[in-house]
Automatic annotation (TrEMBL):
Residues 20-267 form the NADP-dependent oxidoreductase domain. One of its GO terms (molecular function) is oxidoreductase activity. SUPFAM superfamilies: NAD(P)-linked oxidoreductase (SSF51430). The record marks 83 as: Lowers pKa of active site Tyr. Transmembrane segments: none annotated. This is Aldo/keto reductase. Substrate binds at residue 116. It holds the Pfam family Aldo_ket_red.
Length: 282
């Protein structure tokens, strides 16, 4: 495939990032895989997938350490996203969790810091902590993850809640519920949506229609599934791989030019929602 540029997404604060990044869920859990994980992330950075998503939850901090090794000496080339556990999301707890993440990353700032999902701490408290971290330069912006439309509306009502920069949710061909209300809600407000598990952890890749259409473009089912998400306005896609060759394969998805007829065929195979569905999570 030709080396087409990766489309970009602009956050509310004006920061521009590639719409195709890299995930790290399940990295940092096995020392025997660390070298491959680091090399895969480095290869992705070289290919322009400079947004890297991680969390204190992944590998109990191990994924952040993997990211830290992958970006050593090239911190300014990448855009780091990390997340705080909901049970750490008190005023002081959020700040302390961020400090620990920074230490594991070997970095002086996290570009986008997310609340991983809603917990028992009031949003007012977590947002206040995010704003303190932002004012101190330890984070560039903050956002949320696994927030449904009503959660987002509540967030916008708290002090400084309108500063939310992104919402990361489960979104792929087999999980299209957000298209009914949450995705357009975010699009209308200029809040990017980050799509995690974009190939449903591989579970959709054996679907016969996905395979049939992908073959017509000499592409893989994974590339077609990623291209589907990149077609959506304001969506950032974060596939995870520990294989440098697969990272290059993911990168090539941006060069696919799918016909309207084939998009329609995918809609038949993976129907969009016709009514509100509860937000799905993994």
């Amino acid at each position: 495939m030709q080396d087409d540029p990766i489309p970009s997404i602009t956050f509310p604060n004006g920061t521009e990032v590639p719409a195709l990044g890299q995930g790290t869920w399940a990295m940092g859990e096995d020392a025997g895989h660390a070298s491959a994980e680091i090399e895969s992330l480095k290869a992705g950075i070289d290919l322009g997938m400079t947004l890297i998503d991680t969390a204190e939850m992944y590998g109990d901090g191990g994924a952040e350490e993997i990211v830290g090794q992958a970006i050593r000496g090239r911190r300014d080339e990448v855009f780091i996203v990390s997340k705080v556990y909901p049970w750490n999301a008190s005023l002081n707890g959020t700040i302390e969790a961020c400090e620990r993440s920074l230490e594991r990353l070997g970095a002086d700032r996290i570009d986008l810091y997310l609340l991983h999902w809603r917990g028992n701490y009031p949003l007012t408290e977590t947002v206040a902590a995010f704003e303190i971290l932002k004012a101190s330069g330890k984070i560039g912006a903050w956002g949320v993850s696994n927030f449904d439309t009503d959660d987002m509306e509540e967030l916008l009502r708290v002090p400084d809640g309108t500063n939310v920069a992104a919402n990361q949710v489960l979104y792929n061909l087999s999980r299209r519920g957000i298209e009914f209300d949450l995705l357009p809600w975010c699009q209308n407000r200029g809040i990017p949506v980050m799509a995690y598990s974009p190939i449903e952890q591989g579970n959709i890749l054996h679907h016969p229609e996905l395979i049939r259409i992908a073959k017509a473009y000499q592409a893989t089912p994974a590339q077609l599934a990623l291209a589907f998400l990149l077609e959506r306005d304001g969506v950032i896609v974060i596939p995870k791989t520990s294989n440098a060759e697969r990272a290059a394969e993911n990168r090539d998805c941006v060069s696919l030019d799918i016909t309207d007829d084939d998009w329609d065929a995918l809609d038949v195979a993976f129907p969009p929602p016709t009514k509100k569905k509860p937000l799905e999570m993994l």
